[in-house]
Write a structure and sequence with these properties.
The structure is a homotetramer of 438-residue chains. With 438 residues, the first copy, chain A, is an alpha/beta fold. Chain A has two domains: 11-375, Divalent-metal-dependent TIM barrel enzymes (TIM Barrel), CATH 3.20.20.150; 379-437, no CATH class. Chain A has helices at 37-41, 47-52, 73-91, 100-103, 110-131, 158-178, 200-221, 245-254, 267-272, 277-286, 313-325, 348-374, 377-385, 392-399, 404-413, 424-437, and strands at residues 11-12, 22-23, 31-32, 35-36, 43-46, 95-99, 134-139, 182-185, 191-192, 226-229, 239-240, 261-266, 290-294, 335-337. In chain A, strands 5-6-7-8-10-12-13-14 form an eight-stranded parallel β-barrel, surrounded by four helices. A two-stranded parallel ribbon of chain A has the order 1-2. In chain A, strands 3-4 form a two-stranded antiparallel sheet. In chain A, helix 6 links the parallel strand 7 and strand 8. The longest helix of chain A has 27 residues, at 348-374. Chain A is globular, with a radius of gyration of 24 Å. Chain A starts with 10 loop residues before the first strand and ends with a helix. At the B-D interface, loops of B face loops of D.
Chain lengths: 438, 438, 438, 438
Amino acid sequence: MSYFANTPVIRYEGRGSDNPLAFKFYNPDEVVLGKTMREHLRFAVAYWHAFTGTGSDPFGGATNVRGWDRYSGMDLAKARVEACFELLHILDVDYFCFHDRDIAPEGDTLQETNANLDVIVGQIEEHMKATGKKLLWNTANMFTNPRFVHGAATTSNADVFAYAAAQVKKALEHGKRLGAENYVFWGGREGYESLLNTDLGLELDNLARFLHMAVDYAKEIGFDAQFLIEPKPKEPSKHQYDFDAATTLAFLHKYSLLPHFKLNIEANHATLAGHTFEHELRVSRINGVLGSIDANQGDLLLGWDTDEFPTDLYSTTLAMYEILLNEGGIGRGGVNFDAKVRRASFEPVDLVHAHIAGMDAFARGLQVAAKLIEDRVFDGILETRYGSFQSGIGADIVAGRASFRTLEAYALENKPIVNASGRLEHIKAIVNQYISNV
Amino acid sequence: MSYFANTPVIRYEGRGSDNPLAFKFYNPDEVVLGKTMREHLRFAVAYWHAFTGTGSDPFGGATNVRGWDRYSGMDLAKARVEACFELLHILDVDYFCFHDRDIAPEGDTLQETNANLDVIVGQIEEHMKATGKKLLWNTANMFTNPRFVHGAATTSNADVFAYAAAQVKKALEHGKRLGAENYVFWGGREGYESLLNTDLGLELDNLARFLHMAVDYAKEIGFDAQFLIEPKPKEPSKHQYDFDAATTLAFLHKYSLLPHFKLNIEANHATLAGHTFEHELRVSRINGVLGSIDANQGDLLLGWDTDEFPTDLYSTTLAMYEILLNEGGIGRGGVNFDAKVRRASFEPVDLVHAHIAGMDAFARGLQVAAKLIEDRVFDGILETRYGSFQSGIGADIVAGRASFRTLEAYALENKPIVNASGRLEHIKAIVNQYISNV
Amino acid sequence: MSYFANTPVIRYEGRGSDNPLAFKFYNPDEVVLGKTMREHLRFAVAYWHAFTGTGSDPFGGATNVRGWDRYSGMDLAKARVEACFELLHILDVDYFCFHDRDIAPEGDTLQETNANLDVIVGQIEEHMKATGKKLLWNTANMFTNPRFVHGAATTSNADVFAYAAAQVKKALEHGKRLGAENYVFWGGREGYESLLNTDLGLELDNLARFLHMAVDYAKEIGFDAQFLIEPKPKEPSKHQYDFDAATTLAFLHKYSLLPHFKLNIEANHATLAGHTFEHELRVSRINGVLGSIDANQGDLLLGWDTDEFPTDLYSTTLAMYEILLNEGGIGRGGVNFDAKVRRASFEPVDLVHAHIAGMDAFARGLQVAAKLIEDRVFDGILETRYGSFQSGIGADIVAGRASFRTLEAYALENKPIVNASGRLEHIKAIVNQYISNV
Amino acid sequence: MSYFANTPVIRYEGRGSDNPLAFKFYNPDEVVLGKTMREHLRFAVAYWHAFTGTGSDPFGGATNVRGWDRYSGMDLAKARVEACFELLHILDVDYFCFHDRDIAPEGDTLQETNANLDVIVGQIEEHMKATGKKLLWNTANMFTNPRFVHGAATTSNADVFAYAAAQVKKALEHGKRLGAENYVFWGGREGYESLLNTDLGLELDNLARFLHMAVDYAKEIGFDAQFLIEPKPKEPSKHQYDFDAATTLAFLHKYSLLPHFKLNIEANHATLAGHTFEHELRVSRINGVLGSIDANQGDLLLGWDTDEFPTDLYSTTLAMYEILLNEGGIGRGGVNFDAKVRRASFEPVDLVHAHIAGMDAFARGLQVAAKLIEDRVFDGILETRYGSFQSGIGADIVAGRASFRTLEAYALENKPIVNASGRLEHIKAIVNQYISNV
């Protein structure tokens, strides 16, 4: 049976097509800067939004109409797997991502929960073999169940810490079994509601202990996926410990975890933290930890995680620019649509429309970014702007040959300082030309 | 002499041009939906940012390098007039806007201040006659001078109220003399720092009294400009009384001022109030008070008025969409660049680059919006979506033929309700196609 | 049976008590400015948070442990009524508030839903008679059910408008039956997600039509409750039509609804709109529409409605100050705790702790505000500050005897203007003295 | 002569005093937890706000009326020194802080600028000897002068880097000469306006090079002050590199600067970054880098640095709680009023009122925090809440004796997990009791 009845496989028809069920910009085999779009973008469907999302929000119930709603329990879990591989086929997307609790229901005991998981992982494994689809990353949901009300690795209850460890252990085993390319840690309850009742030092120490155990266990079982931490500043907690890329780097430095982790950067989390998406990507890139991205967008006039499908071409262009300049591009990571259809877009075909919108937005961003690179637009700007550090006193500074004494001597003798305009308005006009013309 | 040496008059060269000093999208004579771009857009240069802006910010001094900096006092004022008409010529812009204190320095007394103003207004008048350039609007600066520390029309000091009245009286006279098409009220100090020492009721009553006096005086002297209020939610005050379009409408309703005023909507003020630019324009449009716009953009991750030159094509497209649908378009209003070059864009030519960037962004927005209208994209969506109000019970509701009793009877008999998807993701994908393809 | 086992009736023990289950500041019979605290505050328990709240959030499931969880359907509904009156008794609170869907489950048809409601309203009616507890206000929940996905009175589907009308009709009848003192309209889905697919003019016209029908029907059945609109700027919609007090006033003016409505001001909604709680109260007060308050507080570093129990003494002091100065005080309104225990405060006794915290915070705010009034602290400040409007030119302005001509004449002759300091820092220090000393 | 005519030395008169020019809570010699208030708080006056602040804002000119306004150039600089020591005397404050450019005007050359500085430093040195007043910290202003338009240590112009180095070299020498206890780095222009023209990697590398040079030079000259970095997230730059405490820690880790720096935490900078003041203090404390504080407060409904004098007793209580728990308390740091009187509080005596308000607020916070500690309120909460980590599996986790294998074994055997309520509402009620009762 089909969960997306009458929906054809989506093909590239070009930017002038008015077929809603076609790609206008994403042409998987189109070669850009030496690689195909498919290779650059490594799109992934997010299991949670696509197959367990209901359209509910804090003020209203489920709106989504889904073919699998008729089932419950393990039957529901199995139906969702079928739906997932059908959607991957329709969209011609190679990857998917899931939390453990997305794919299988909890049982009455951890044993039963794990048994449920094993069954579904087996079903997924078979589909993967049959279709060639791949697991971009898996992760453990340690935020939905009320046991995690005070956190998982940062809980105030040692029994919960143990439970969380058992859960991640199993998730690592499943990741290995399914050949996951990455494993993600998003600490949905790793944070605090108030400092008035929080032992911040202990909680952060425990988080580090937990991650070290995870590193050790992955090594022990030979699971070589890239470990990723996904920063988020707030929501559901008032303060989330992995606030942003820089905060996460501080944590990884302090606890000697830096060699083992990269970051999974989400656009909407960036803006909730007061940053642009490209800022978080740039910070990650220059620190060598740009691992993967959660593609979505927020509404900057709203203060919560709206997880909209990404359609802002400025944002996708600058994101792809950072990825193209990253050593190895997106590497083992990918572009995962951690995005949900709006609550009023409740039909199954809206899931297809939304992925088309997002994939086309990233494909278009890739085109524009690639052209900016080919034309050396930003390279040229930087070479001019920072030219003074290529020779003379500037080169001395960069090479470590300067001190306050030598610099003072230079400054006292130097002629009046002349700066050059930053030309930002003109640069933005160039970006508009590229977005309109490419 | 020239204040923009070596800067040619800017001409349209088309979207493929790589000449920084050319328009890529703004073609003044290009006809769009039956009017030229020039007629649709009615661009204006803002005197304050362009000729009195220094590049200073709360943490740093002037950076702008301007040819008129060598002068002071009335000589400076006169030089700025020359610079203004030179820039209007270079940009081929027809309109400009000013505050009284932008164009002439205050003297030791109000008499002297007014005399200074008269001199410069005379100089401007001559230039207008010689060039055909026009005054989109003028206004009175009642926020810079320390006498307005507690407000102007909403001051706690009756002497200041009187002074403000005298100042606006003069400004209305000058507006009439120069044939201003509009007169703007922006209440830079009409607001409060804290309710702890504020008589809110008295201050708002006084504001209404002031505006009624202005209406009366304009009528008395036969100044028929459109009066505009420009909403802003905060900054410099903690709370500004004309918070947003809706707040201003409530005020105008309460004090029977609605027949006399329209609104001047500024993009950055909209976002500071928690709204999109297009929201404020739509609210104004459906209330019949869309008068003019202050074209700029804010940074939604920053909490103050950044007054950047507008370059976001989404925003200019949706703004132009509202204007095109407004009865009479922008009417006697225009597109005034209430925008400043970034502090690091301090060369005179940056002023030219910035206006090119903004004018091209609005021209491109006009093109895209016009095509969306020609293709009936949004019209078609609305007709389908709200079709149920065209007949049956829906038509009864709209026509005033329904009551709770008749609607209950209908609802009790009605079959289960079926809603249709809002299709927002697909609609956004269409917008991206238009922005890329037009 | 008891749903709050071992919880005594909460009594006033005074500010030094360390009994967690006692009031420290709220002494119901203590007379303040001529009325008892009970009369001033008219506390109400909110049915939804207290009896249907689960502790779930967008990232996690129910945590609350409640005695009524063992039931379902109408049995659950009946158990909650028992729990409600038990909690009112424990807290010695006189009022409660509910949405229709809080108290009874929907059936398969509107007829069945209404029948369910009738049963529970009967049960509530009996308890009210037996205990003397009163209904502060009721309202209709038109946001949870997916039929309202596009709005209720502002839906794009006429069938939904009719359904909403039937629902409010029933709610008005129940309000009358239970002697509700007010009836509240909170438009949880009256707003938009995007202007791209919204007919803003039609939606607002329809909202006005709906409210006129409600006014007419209440009159028809002789339901004389005060009608209240509760503003909120966003969430769940991206934009809510009743954005804030001023926006709501503009709407009421435009559609001639002002004589029929007052406002129910919620602290957290105020701050989401960019205002202080006291600002929204002051705006309501000076426009004669301060009807009731939803007592809670938000976290200003978070961008969503956290609905915390109110504990900030600055906020409760300034809120009570506005209420004490309002003509008739809170009138037929009251202080309704539209607040939820934190997700980690999941025990039944936390509900009691939370209400104690909130009631004490408002009682303390009442004490401090009353003392500020008795000592004429703010009155004295305003009399001095605005003294210039009591005579001379200021009195002329206020009396309507001034014009731009007379004011200009005055200003031209006037001596240099001297302003007085606003003294805000000193005023804040006084407030701190009162909060510490009262 | 006197710059604060008729202003007496401020004495402690107790909480009931209605003398505006008296302390109500700050009793310098009162012993709290074994130290005097004076020793705990180490108050400092900020030279820039107090003596160079004008009351101007982006929309208006100077309002402040100051006795030294009659002077200019070096005469002005000298008068300000006199005013500073007069105010320190009046307030009985022991410390002050300055930027180099606060105390002396720039000359035409760096040589002349340095000569000006030397003169004023000499004058200050004499006053310090005569009065016993001390320099809490000094710093270099590298943000006001237009040469720093693109940054100082992170400029795109190597000549500017050299100039900045010379400037800090001089400031370190002056710090040593005056016995400064700390030296502060606040990077007012160390950030970016846009990534479109920024080489983020080079700029951050250069910032690290600069700080290493500063460390080396201080060591070379034997200046043993504590080096402090002051985080701020934005303003004046769109993004400031020292965004918050965690970001700064990541930077210090990466560039091996951590042993040489602590942090100077400012309340308003914390909230601009999306954090509470106490969060930034706690993060600093648990990382051993809590060095000093800039005492002020922001308006959380405004998006810029309002630098208000601190009066929120919740904030001062929680700040003092962190300081009291910090090893060594505030240590060599202090409580520096980086706060400005509101623009409408323009009289000299407002400076005195404002400092009284802030000092009393901190003294009151100290009293409340000390009592919370004496009564072990929070200690008791934490001991209970985290008790499970004191023994059994929890102790194994903390001691490093657990692994995913041992924890899984434990979890599989463990009985169902039971969590305890976090009791936050009750804890907040306790805080209110302490604030009202202490």
